[in-house]
Amino acid sequence: MTSVHTSARTPTRGKPSDAPARPIAWAMLSRALSVPLILGLVCFLPAVIAAQPGSGVRDTAYWLQLVLTCYAGARLATMILSTRRRLLQGVFWMFVYIAMGVAPFAQVVIGQTPTPMVGPRQDLVTAIAMILVGCAAYDLGALLASRRPLRRRTPSARGPGGGPARAHPVRLRLLVLLAFAASAFYVLKLGGPAVFFSSRQEINETVAASGVVTEGSNVGSAFIKGFGQVPALLALLFYTRRLATSRRARRTPSTVLVWVALAALNLVVNNPISNARYWFLTVLMAFVFTAFPSSAAFYRTVLTTGVVGALVVFPYADRFRYEEGGERPVQSASVFDPLVTKDYDQMVMFANTISWVDTRGHTYGRQLTGSALFFVPRAVWSGKPEDTGVRVGQWMGLRMTNLSAPLWTEFWVDLGPAGMVGGMALIGYAAARTDRRYALAVTRAGPGSGSVLAIAAPLIAGYTFILLRGPLLQAVGKLAIAALCLVLITTFREQRAARRR
Question: Burial letters for 385-420: b for 16+ Cβ neighbours within 10 Å, e otherwise?
Answer without folding.
Answer: bbbbbbbbbebbebeeeebbbbbbbbbbbbbeeebb
